[in-house]
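In response to the reviewer comment on reproducibility (Comment 2.3), we provide here a single inverse folding case reported in full, input and output, so that an independent group could reproduce the run without further information from us. The structure tokens appear first.
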């Protein structure tokens, strides 16, 4: 029997530091909720708004797959692997922190930037740190899910050390699609970026999160024009 968990947008942790306004779907930093530690191997889902010319200074990570998806604006990334890049809306960035990496992310414009910061527990520890970034604009499809991340370096999108698949989708009101799980033992976390959707009878609104597991597929319908991120990940 299908199991699910609903995280309403307004139930997320709220951290406003002035230069950074972050909404936490799962426990992070000063936000701690023992019932919201993770969904399977999905450990962090932060919805970050960074003020112009502000950002995160150089800081460390290890043994975590870190994915950034800019929704608006742009960020300047620098790390101790020698990468200095700009990531902007329409891109996806991934780091396998492995044995350890230091990086910084700054908004190098005068306008606010909004991006999703996602952490996934890896299936391999202490790997050599790696960085990748691509544009996903050329992958977009109308009223269909399109893959932006997988475990396979030869597949569409970026890849990570985990049996995880991410898809984005933009749907006009009235359109629908069934998502079929890649692995039956995985779970699916649905995050609504914009609009309103129905997932097998559950209505979701902007920034709601909905975890589904112990099923083979879910049917997703756009009640209003909608944009959403699907994250299929192993359950712990």
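Designed residues, in position order:
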């Amino acid at each position: 029997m299908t199991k699910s968990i609903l995280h309403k947008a307004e139930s997320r942790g709220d951290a406003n530091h002035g230069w950074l306004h972050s909404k936490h779907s799962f426990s992070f930093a000063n936000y701690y909720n023992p019932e919201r530690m993770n969904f399977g191997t999905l450990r962090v889902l932060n919805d970050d708004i960074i003020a112009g010319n502000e950002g995160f200074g150089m800081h460390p990570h290890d043994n975590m797959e870190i994915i950034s998806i800019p929704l608006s604006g742009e960020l300047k990334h620098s790390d101790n692997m020698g990468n200095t890049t700009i990531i902007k809306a329409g891109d996806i960035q991934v780091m396998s922190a492995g044995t350890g990496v230091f990086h910084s992310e700054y908004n190098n414009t005068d306008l606010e930037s909004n991006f999703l910061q996602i952490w996934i527990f890896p299936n391999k520890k202490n790997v050599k740190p790696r960085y990748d970034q691509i544009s996903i604009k050329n992958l977009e499809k109308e009223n269909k899910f399109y893959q932006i991340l997988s475990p396979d370096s030869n597949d569409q999108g970026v890849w990570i050390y985990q049996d995880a698949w991410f898809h984005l989708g933009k749907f006009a009101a009235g359109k629908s699609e069934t998502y079929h799980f890649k692995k039956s033992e995985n779970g699916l976390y649905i995050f609504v970026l914009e609009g309103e959707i129905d997932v097998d009878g559950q209505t979701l609104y902007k920034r709601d999160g909905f975890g589904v597991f112990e099923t083979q597929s879910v049917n997703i319908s756009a009640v209003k024009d909608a944009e959403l991120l699907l994250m299929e990940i192993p359950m712990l």
